[in-house]
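In response to reviewer comment 3 from the previous cycle, which asked for concrete evidence that the modeling workflow produces usable outputs, we include below a single protein chain processed end to end. The sequence was submitted unchanged, and the resulting structure tokens are shown without manual editing.
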Amino acid sequence: MERVRLAAWRVGPRNGFTLVELLVVMAIIALLLALAVPRYFKSVTRAEETVLRENLTLMRDAVDKYYADNAKYPPDLQELVTKRYLRKVPHDPLTGTAATWVIVPPDDPEKGGVYDVKSGAPGNSLAGTPYADW
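The workflow returned the following structure tokens.
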């Protein structure tokens, strides 16, 4: 019995990938990233806008409660923390600091200093409205 020998052909698994296979995989990954990355950044912006709305609602509610208790508006936002209407002045999620809140004073200056609070963030929301109008 004579054994048949395959001289130039290798039987079994190949080691490594061909250049074409690597290029196809890289093209598929690039396509998936091109679809996923814009959605990711849009969802991050949407989350920041949601936190901004919640922080504004929280501070406006605290100002209203302060007015109901004291018959005047607080002189500044820190007064809300001092009198324990807030634990701390929340950060503006778009600017990353609590120092950018825009204070709207009441019509009568004798009633206090903080009638309303608005965001000091530049730019527009995903809906197209300026953050300063919120």
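Residues 48-123 form one domain. We consider this sufficient to address the reviewer's concern, and the full set will be provided in the supplementary archive.
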